[in-house]
């Protein structure tokens, strides 16, 4: 980048800072300034044109240092471009692709991309067809997510949203998907904790973290999701599937509200500016399933939004629900009951997930959903203290077992086929009246065996691949001869 | 004297600042008995005295001064950076040229910066033009570096 004087001579326009309010500077002059163009101040700081009025150019400052009134400014005749490339993998950066931790230098890639581009058109998009395995059984079976989907994660604070995301990232990073984790205005210690988990699980090489802390300038925090999606687009164009996690958009909306109010924009509902929907939809639209060359490549976005006391009708929350392809609701009540993940399958929605499932998975989801509804109804009915018949006892016992089956400790992941296999075992009453602790021990053994024993792995995969309906799979399971000797190798006779 | 004629004698931002303070002085003196004549006789410029003329009504005088102030506010500033301190005659000559060719309401903010060596840097309505000798020399050094090294 040239220095201030070079730009001044090259562009031939000058402006003077007339007023500074927080991160916004009102600059006189610069007659040719355009919206979203970069502006450089005499002191070397960078800003971006937010809006234009008759007398002033409103500039959003990206600097930690305050700009003084009277300082000269020059426009750079270009939008904000950030360096993107494979060099960023395994790094924690800020939205300018500078190292987040100054003691750990990051090699700057040569490619540069404008971070505020238009979303790709309909001609470059394809229907979402591929299933994205999160490793979380409840989600993969009941509320599936597809590659290219935008699935909102919504819930109160401390309900396990981040743990679910970490499990998804671990599951996908191991399969070679690039994961971009955008942290918006969080504490440094939280960012460090997330990084430590990735490093511990040896997946950091497939992850890029774009982080801003609450101490960063509002302008920089505002740019975080745009920078993240720009990096995702780079990998999409390189033919690699990408998952983008945005943690979280309620914070982003708050910082944008601060900027807008300081910029004297008219406040709307909850004092948010009128363009808050556009601000979020603008980068969300850039995700999807695309056709690149001759193959499909996706950008999956998993944004997080916090609710207050489980209120789903908040302004930002409903905005985001309307611009995403479904949402996973993390229920405070379920979390308090010790259910992990605390996802409420009745309130959660996936608009395009089902089309990514195989016919077997779809039949399982159908059976499961109708049974869970029955289980809930029965549980409510039992509250009246009625005498319980044997059939109701069976429903309650199966429902309890299923609830415990879906229980997964934070950051633990289960492969797709073993999820289906174990569910089918449970559904077929394979374990009889054994206590769930014993069932769980057996299941854990088989999970390990699936990962370690190739013959067992292949047999399960074959069994799942050749079944097109749950009933078909249940018939095959009857042939398994392992019930009485679970410590031995499982022999599948299907 | 009418306003355009008065403004034609304002060349620089310094002139304008001086006039602002003179207008302030006269405005304060209007309602003090005997003060106005004293101020007009010794503390303001001849041009302002001529502009006020023999007006004796306080209201009209006050209005006249506020009109003048408004007209001064509307003057457009051209920032001129020179390597030397220009004489009054030079300023007058440049201002006359600019007013004839660009904008009648232009005044100059003169800035002296010896390190530009010669020529001028102009800033007008957000536009910036560097016609300084320093920049010309830098361009020459940049474009003819190899030839210069041979000398």
Secondary-structure blueprint:
The complex is a heterodimer of chains A (494) and B (151).
Chain A: H1 4-11, E1 15-21, E2 24-29, E3 37-41, E4 46-52, E5 56-61, E6 72-79, E7 81-83, E8 92-93, E9 112-114, E10 131-132, H2 137-142, E11 145-146, E12 152-155, H3 161-173, E13 178-186, H4 188-200, E14 207-213, H5 218-237, E15 242-247, H6 249-262, H7 276-284, E16 288-292, E17 295-306, H8 315-323, E18 326-330, H9 332-336, E19 349-350, H10 359-382, H11 390-406, H12 416-427, H13 436-452, H14 454-465, H15 470-477
Parallel strand pairs in A: 8-14, 12-17, 12-18, 13-14, 13-15, 15-17
Antiparallel strand pairs in A: 1-2, 1-6, 2-5, 3-4, 3-6, 4-5, 7-9, 10-11, 16-17, 18-19
Chain B: H1 3-7, H2 13-29, H3 35-42, H4 46-52, H5 58-73, E1 76-82, H6 88-101, E2 106-112, E3 119-124, E4 127-132, H7 133-143, H8 145-150
Parallel strand pairs in B: 1-2
Antiparallel strand pairs in B: 1-3, 3-4
Helix pairs in contact in B: 2-5
Task: Please summarize what this structure is.
The complex is a heterodimer of chains A (494) and B (151). By secondary structure, chain A is of the alpha/beta class.
